[in-house]
């Protein structure tokens, strides 16, 4: 019988590379009273059959930094523990067969420059010099990433485990967790330990690092962990002449394949376009230790044929071993990390989508710091488990979605790619109406929404391309309608919370950086900041009564917002937060004739005097009592109208019919994005992030620093303001009228990399690409106004330099006359 301790501070479930990394990093932070439990032996689940690739460059700066940390850690672990990790920097070659892929690789080079990584273009001949086995006659080019490497997954896991043990962590193998112990006496449950087949362990914190078993472990605690297993195939060949330990990693994404050296031969794997999900997460077999699934040569054929085409030597090489090892994937191809919103003291790190070895060091460090600090210490928004709701925990939905996600792993990563599987999931009461208007639908947090409206009779589909797509013309028409007449936006997917109670104002004054103690009927734009002064949310709060408020946030952040409000309210707060997202539809009526349109359907006074900007009132609209808030995210006179869902179709129909005489048209989220960028309005998770404060964002006006009212993050924000920003969000317009930008492009100042485009679109009012970028001089220097104004700027558009004009002021209507005449600028 295993001699388990009766209690510990932290219990970690899962002895793969992720669990061992969390244990290692907790110990290095001084938390050594840690027990790690593995149902088999270390690395026996998914880790042992991982390919072991360590590619540093990722889709965002935050995720790239995590992998960079992993490489630093792996490079020093052997000296620290005496155990090898198999980590070796060998470089990587990625090749392109198509023009679309070449554009992607050129954008990759620019992203590497933005993150300070080495990456250089290669001709096909130069690629062959780096990788002599390569067939190049059908290649257009390639890139070279000298920092790429590989590690031995099992050895890396053992080294992390030894490093943790050396500091006092106890690791118990062959102990299976059968339940998570919960204290449900308070309003919110808390994890208090685990039940195992060898006895119970009390713990302050439970950490779920169970790999593809993580969903089932989460279910024990009532926590949604949205992942599903899929079969992942690769083969290992016999020895090949010319293959050596320092042969680079080869990626041929147009052929769905990757290749690395393996004991003098080659490991050949890939991500086939039609993936093969495995059993449901609650049906995973036990035991399943160092096991593989049956060979499936028919399914692997597309990968093998592609690999033979790229490396002809494979046609003459024998196969030593076929690996079919299941691993877990998430609905959006980003891993899951963080504190579970459903249960206090329960943390998750799982669903690594075939990049677990590369991510393990950074992810383990990030989660350990989160546990110790009580909140994230860095920007983890893209991986935060709170981006999903319980809806995304359905196994049938996950099976369909994960098959698509895995199949897209090596597809061209179009910036506006919409998932096609497992839809629809959530529909507003206006869904049928916008479909009848020929909406091109996208999804956000499961909501079906109109991206843009195609002309009637034209197929309502997106075309994916790097250059200007056909749908931009439809979007331009919507922008023009908004700027010149009036447009109607279906925005029901907004997250909406009713906040009430004796201490509601006290709580909001602490949680919100802006002053919420305003007259009833006033709407306040405000950030919610973390203890580092960075953004946790970007919301509007409307005071609807002395002790009642309506908070409106983005569609994607419902779970995150509600969790943040609960965790960070002052102790003993007497207040109530109710999610009314599904109870209220939202119709945006925006444009210079928005007042005229509303007036045709309402008997109420909507004049400037009766209904000033930034106020909210109950009005009658098409015979229905609604809440109308005069506010805008597009930079024009307009109202957001909040309608009970049952009445929404009638109100929308009345507005649509009345709008015909005014030239109104329906408009979608692509138009909103372009219009807000012309006005320089920021968006959470793009311009606004947990590592960025209102100082860098240029939004200090939305903070109550002129008052003596304390709020979360205030002291750090004041210090940052005094020191000056090292980076700054700026508006820009492209000086070349034909350039089409997507976001993510490298920004140069006087020829030197200084930042990256955070958002971009085609601005119809400006007749050019417009966007926001985060730039700075680097090092300890600050991004002063003088530094910003003194430079000449361009963006790297797939290897071509496009000059841009940069400003701290909005390119369109910088003084805000369109929003509220004679009152200055207003925004949400």
Name some characteristics of this structure:
5 domains; 26% helix; FAD/NAD(P)-binding domain; 828 residues; alpha+beta; eight-stranded mixed β-sheet; D-Amino Acid Oxidase, Chain A, domain 2; Alpha-Beta Plaits; globular
Descriptive notes:
By secondary structure, this protein is α+β, with helices and mostly antiparallel strands. The protein folds into five domains: 7-85 and 151-229 and 332-387, 3-Layer(bba) Sandwich (FAD/NAD(P)-binding domain); 88-150 and 231-279 and 296-327, D-Amino Acid Oxidase, subunit A, domain 2 (D-Amino Acid Oxidase, Chain A, domain 2, 2-Layer Sandwich); 495-579, 2-Layer Sandwich (Alpha-Beta Plaits), CATH 3.30.70; 584-663, Gyrase A, domain 2, CATH 3.30.1360; 682-807, Elongation Factor Tu (Ef-tu), domain 3 (Beta Barrel), CATH 2.40.30.110. α1 (17-28) packs parallel to α8 and α2 packs across α5 (153-166). It is globular. The N and C termini lie far apart (61 Å). Mean pLDDT is 97; it is low at 824-828. Residues 727-813 form the Aminomethyltransferase C-terminal domain. Residues 9-370 form the FAD dependent oxidoreductase domain. InterPro entries: FAD-dep_OxRdtase, FAD/NAD-bd_sf, FAO_M, GcvT/YgfZ/DmdA, GcvT/YgfZ_C, GcvT_C, GCVT_N, TrmE/GcvT-like.
